[in-house]
Structure formats: C-alpha cells, structure tokens
Amino acid sequence: MHTLPSLSQLGWRPFFQQQLTLDEFTDFNIGRVIEQHRSGVVVLSEHGHCSLNQSFSQAAERLCVGDWVLFNGDNQFHRLLDRQSLFQRKAPGSKVETQLISANVDSVFIVCSLNQDFNLSRIERYLALTKEAQVEPIIILTKADLCQDLDDKLAQVQSLDPFMMVHAINALDKEQLSVLDTYCKQGNTIALLGSSGVGKSTLVNGLMGFEAQLTSDIREDDSKGRHTTTSRALKTLPQGGLILDTPGMRELQLGACEQGVNETFSEITELAQQCRFADCSHANEPGCAVRAAIESGVITARRYASYQKLMREQALNGATLAEKRAKEKAFGKMINSVQSESRNRKKGAF
Fold it and tell me: Which residue from 105, 136, 91 is spatially nearest to 32, judged by alpha carbons?
C-alpha cells in the first residue's frame, strides 16, 4: 500500500502558502499537477490522485505539470496558484503561441551526449530558456564512458560559465549517478531538457532505480535517437525529490527571452556596454569592444554567432507572439463593442 505524500514532499513551500485565504485553506484541497495529457491533467494531493475537472469557462486557464491548484471535493478546479518559475517555449511549427512545459521547477538537468550529438550551441539554447525561467541549470554530459576526449569537452562546456555545475557521467553506472543525489533531495523539483537520444530516459531510470521510462537505441550513423517519452509527468525519486522528463524537443524555438539570452552570454552583453557607440552593431564600427574581443580570441566566433542567432530568433518569435496577442485583444474589444451595441439596440426597442 502506497503512503500518501505530504504537501512538503510534493514541493509545497511558503511562496504558495502565502497566496491562500483562510477560506480557501479550509474549503478546498491543495494539489500538484503531476501528469499532463491531451485529455486533461492528473493532480496528486494528500488525499491521493484525481483527474481534475474544469468547466468550459475555466478551460482557458492553461495548466502544466508542476502547477499548484485548488479544487473542491468533487475534483472541480477552483484556481491556479501563482508560479515560482515557468518553462515555456514557442509552440513547434508555424503555430503562433507559447507552449507551457513545466512550472515551479527548482533545478534543470540540461542533458547532452558526449557522442556526435555534442553541441555547445544547443547547450546555450537550453541555458537561455533555463535562465529566462530563473531556474538553476546543471549540465549533465552522458555516455562519458564512450568519450575519447572527455577533458577537452568538459573544458569547452565549463567555459560557457565558470560557475555552472557540470557533470560527466555514465548513466548506467550507479556510483557515478550518486554525484547527482544532492539535487534530488525531498521537496526539490528537477526538469530534464535535451534532444532525443542523449540519454534522458536512461538517466531517469538510473535515478529512479528501475525502468520508469522506455529507452531506445540510437542510430549509429548520426547518433540521433527516437522519442521514447510521450507525455509529461512528475515522478518521485528514491532520494525524495521529484523529477520531470519532457518529450524530446528537437524543435525548440525561443519565445521572448532576451533576459535569458543576455544572461547566458553575459560576457558579450558586458563588453557591448564598453563600445564607443550605444547602438553598435558589432560589425565595422570603430571602438567596438565586442569585435576587439573576437579578434583577440577572448570570445570565439562560434559563441558570438550563437549569441546573434538566439537574439534574432527570440526577437522574431517574441514580436510574432506580441502581434498575435495584440490582434486577439483588438478582436476581443470589437466583440464586446458589437455585443454592447446590440444590447443597447434591444433596450431602445422597448
């Protein structure tokens, strides 16, 4: 028989407690969204699991794994509590909207394989998302047992941020996995980010102590993997923490996250403030501190190109999303105006 968790075991803390009124505390159940499916969400509370019921009017309240919610005895959704952190991305493809990934995450394992999939620019992309969400990033380099130039790759990753925690492990080795125990303590919520085939599911299985996730072989020709995780779910770790494995996100487009990009490339943004001209494009202007750093080798051309690419992408996608919101707001005003005019006409008819 499974013991029901306490709220603190689920990650409850004063930030959420302070949002409750006395009536809400006594009249409603408190639960955390632990599974997200197309048909809805599953909530876990001190009373057990339940599928949450939302009325049509509440359906616009987008929920995601990690959210804290209030609901009544009939499992009817009451309200969503403010989030301490939120992971979101621009929805894949041409769809103009943001997609919620997870909420109230404390740490993120950015997983990258030490095979042909090793890619510093991709790590920087995940770092920008993580820093925008104001969550602690931890880099996990998997398949260390198969890497011939481990020290060189470790140095390359550490050079992205000298204060960032970086671990190179073989996820099938329990002893090597133990270095991650400090992040998996009770009440701590961890999310995993990384492309398909990098070993996220193998890592989850190793931390869980059993095969909680299906794994699949990677293709030998390009080291790419197949998607093995198809829905988002929070799982309880033996160490007491909670872990979220997200589906492989190859098409990870940044939304409006200028702050996250700037923090990821902080040395470039700091140098830009030293340029002679405030609007320096870092191309051919005289007195450009960024260009001087590139030419002297302080900043690599690859890193600067990655910075430019992510800034352009987030600016474009952010503007597109802002334009969509503006259009929706204008459309909503028009509908309200038409409805108001119709009501006035009906009143005048009597």
Answer: 105
- Reported as a single tens digit per residue, the pLDDT across 256-305 is 788 999 999 999 999 999 999 988 989 888 999 999 999 999 999 999 99
CA angle 227, 230, 234 (to 5 degrees): 120
Residue 325 has pLDDT above 60, yes or no: no
Contacts of 312 (CB under 8 A, 6+ apart): none
What backbone phi and psi angles, to 5 degrees, belong to 35?
Answer: -140, 145
Does residue 159 register a pLDDT over 70?
Answer: yes
pTM of the model: 0.79
Q: Kind of pairing, strands 68-71 and 107-113?
A: unpaired
- Assigned token pair, 16: 């959420």
DSSP string of 288-342, one letter each residue: -HHHHHHHTTSS-HHHHHHHHHHHHHHHHHHHHHHHHHHHHHHHHHHHHHHHHHH
CA atoms within 13 A on the CB side of 285: 15
Q: Which two tokens stand for residue 317?
A: 């996608």
